Predict the structure of Glycoside hydrolase family 127 protein.
Amino acid sequence: MRLDPEGYLGRWQDLNATATIPHSMRMLEESGTLDNLRRVVGRADGDFTGYHFADSDVHKLLEAIGWEIARTGTRDFDEFLAATVALLEEVQDDDGYLDSHFQGTGGPGEPRERFADLRWGHELYCAGHMIQAAVALSRAGRGDLLVIARRTADLLVRRAAERGVPDVDGHPEAETALVELYRHTGEQAYLDLAEQMIEARGRGGLGPDRLGPHYFQDHAPVRDSTEATGHAVRQLYLDAGVTDLYTERGDRTLLEAMVGQWETAHHEKMYVTGAMGSRHFDESFGDAYELPPDRAYAETCASIADVQWSWRMLLVDRDARYADAMERALHNSIRSSLSQDGTAFFYSNPLHLRAGHREEENAPSRRTPWYRCACCPPNIARLVASLAEYVATSSADTLSVHLYGAARIDVPAHLGTGHLVVRTAYPQDGDVHVVLDGELRPGTHLALRVPAWARDWTLTVDGTPSDAVRGPDGYVTVDAGFGEVRLVLPMPVDLVVAHPRVDAVRGCVAITRGPVVYCLEQADHEDVPVEDLRLRLDGPLDLGEPAPGGLPTVRAAGAIAAPADGPGALYTLVGQDAATPLLDDVTVTAVPYADWGNRETGPMRVWVPVVHPGSTA
Amino acid sequence: MRLDPEGYLGRWQDLNATATIPHSMRMLEESGTLDNLRRVVGRADGDFTGYHFADSDVHKLLEAIGWEIARTGTRDFDEFLAATVALLEEVQDDDGYLDSHFQGTGGPGEPRERFADLRWGHELYCAGHMIQAAVALSRAGRGDLLVIARRTADLLVRRAAERGVPDVDGHPEAETALVELYRHTGEQAYLDLAEQMIEARGRGGLGPDRLGPHYFQDHAPVRDSTEATGHAVRQLYLDAGVTDLYTERGDRTLLEAMVGQWETAHHEKMYVTGAMGSRHFDESFGDAYELPPDRAYAETCASIADVQWSWRMLLVDRDARYADAMERALHNSIRSSLSQDGTAFFYSNPLHLRAGHREEENAPSRRTPWYRCACCPPNIARLVASLAEYVATSSADTLSVHLYGAARIDVPAHLGTGHLVVRTAYPQDGDVHVVLDGELRPGTHLALRVPAWARDWTLTVDGTPSDAVRGPDGYVTVDAGFGEVRLVLPMPVDLVVAHPRVDAVRGCVAITRGPVVYCLEQADHEDVPVEDLRLRLDGPLDLGEPAPGGLPTVRAAGAIAAPADGPGALYTLVGQDAATPLLDDVTVTAVPYADWGNRETGPMRVWVPVVHPGSTA
């Protein structure tokens, strides 16, 4: 499968290859992250810099390079790749251990005892990312890192065997990595270890911590943990691993827990942008419906993890809801985390920025080139480089297309020959042409996802309107024999409201169009504070000029509220709050949330208060 | 001044004396906080327990005991007092240093170098609390601790002189304490040191920290810092100290900054309960209007600090807004932090608790007997023991009454003889009788605060209606010559809305009555989830049975919403969200927020969605 470089997703992949990956290579150097490894072998001086799990940023970028080589065969990164893999090989101990912080030279704050602080140490987390990088590179024909990663994995297997219990990391990640390593190598011990880790989790083994056991998903065994909770990235990476384990071993009690996890995460704890994790305090999921737009922590890595996990759920059970969630996150919270030039990043992705916002370390008001905790940038790089893998799947008799973008989808040999050419500007519009360049065996089906947001849609097969229905799984099916299929998903501009228990956005609407969520930015409303804009529910919603990312802007009918301030204005008696009359009508401009913050920094909001039927705002 | 033990505030003081203080004494023992001191002198084993600033909890309780002895002359605490002061004396080093963590025996995590980590060390913070305790005890005739505290204060003075710069603590508190020590002792050096600390602050001297300089109020000199920001308790304690310095030195540029601080804090960043500090992440003020009810951190100590600071502002400028703020915090966020039996505490005081709420260390769903960071419980104890001091003040010609409660207010000698007897069940009702038992000199005035919430009020002087007007400062004045004054502040049940920029409570109202804020609790609505209750704006609002605290409950007309859940219910198209029809009418019971959580733990909310003019909720 290959995304067309002229398409929306393909352009993003090219930006990733030409900007995000090279930028990340530079930042790993400038931030001292590579020096952390070099100092272990005496090739750099100074103290360890960054968080103690900084090695993982190197691994994630190597994984991105692996996907990128597989995608285009590029040699652009060969020098960096060779040097970095050689460095890792040099740093690795004879027993397979590799973690520059724990191998460190004893500088300030460096713990030295290995595997002694599994709750916070992140040793297995880093190992997991190295394993994923190694598999991606190996699949691209670069097998050096796999040798190194297997030495580390083998160390973990030996430790579990010798001790009778597996190491369980405070930050899940090794679980899904080990299953992938098993799939790639066929070595059963890796799958067994992943299973041991998953079975051992949630039994308090990580010990007491002031953040409580939920933070580490150590509060309940995975089968009993049917609510997404605690640190969002940890929960979602764990869920990916548990779903992988189900896929390999088929224990349905695991799947049942995962369905509960998925439904609470997506039906009660997901922002309209697809982001997850509302609490800054511990980067965690909040309570059900606790989804404040302004204090959305909404870490980029959580959205990436959700794409990876929802994909695994989709592989288990082809239900469009999983792919709907993936595209929601991809086109909104993930795309928004990256600047238009591909070299600056949000870590936290709020849905509302007030004037005079006071920033925090991981929550700046504009994208920055790197972070001391730099987990997100290389995570974007590895996801985007691998995007084509999420486009389609095949089963025994069906080729299913899940994500829409201009692409070429190879027909697997058991279903036919050649490939499908997908032509679309999606998500700029919802017109999707699928042209068969080859042949499908009789009895083969093509299934196309009809997103839940698509109310009216039409399917044409070889120019003839089809009466195919959307199945209960959200897919529409065409039997082999066609030459060309056209799925039209009309994208009117919609106004969306949240469930009434999402208290923080009561009385507000969000503008959406297809999978794309919009926001208002101060840059488009020079004379009126964004905070004072109101939307009319009964006004026209028109498409405006395209934003620089290519998606259209939206123009909507609104009004300007004029709230009072000063003494007594904060709390007033009902009926005496007429201090907020509506002044003039105004045309409001909304831009894709994915594009926000690429101009002058200023207030932004996704959820916009509506004009009440009365005349006050 | 003395609060009547039969009155609302007097009963609270008795509860404090008979329950909160003895309980806190026990908890200081059980928690190991006293042992932290004993181990310095070899009289206890084990590691330091609790946070490194735990000494301050001892000091705050000693201060409470000082106020309590002054109030009632009690000897109940003599044994504890003598033993604890003797312990402090024994622990204190010859140079005056006293901080059990830094003097510690080198156990785990104990830093040993004194004054080396001013940003996080809390050494001056602890010293400040010891100084305040010493002054309170000295005023009650127990001078032992003052000798000890002055040795510590003298050490700080010497260090500043020797080094040419004062120590500036990451946590303000010493500033206001040193001014008080100057007032009590007349020793100018203490005032000078407080001034030096305040002048040195806000210039980055605390050094870089991942929480940023705002957290420590180190981002701007105090005169340039006109917005309440950063860690709420730190900001508010600092403001108390700066206001004290203005009071003593008269530099109006300090006062101007304090007015800016006060107005941003109270006009943009105050919860309707009087609580402050919305962010859990760093216990800080949020942006203007960032006041989420569910994630209100709303630390008890911040409300206490606000009472102390607003009192100082009131002393500078008799404006009812300062006393209004004090009573709002006192009767709501502070009273709510304490259980009805006086022995359990909230640290965080949210305005909304959802079903299935996941707790955090300082934010449990029910009050707990103590905290690892136990700053709040003894802070309540010292505030409540000192409450009578906030009731009234006198100037050259006026006796002003600020807080209403049954009380006896001594007439100062320069204004007359005898005392005023205040008879009132306030805040159960707003009927305030002031009877003069003595004589006021001719030309003397009695000023009574008319709270901003009081729309219609009447004043009767010796039975005759008065035509006195509420002055621009919010006080009504009666000239000497009266025998009895009756101020009636009618307390209808009100519905309050928040400023439209307080996005989190859009479409909601809060029920208030006089200074008392109400909430809905699950315990009163067994059959209907609190989350689904709606209030009708046009229904009757009646008083119901008194709550156990003595304040009436409120019964209001409401309706039950029936939101959908499950797939697709989280975000729906406008007009298609009719999944939340109103079912039945219901009578809603509201209880004083101060009393919530004294029954079975369950959902609670202060801000209640209103029934829209249409028929859906």
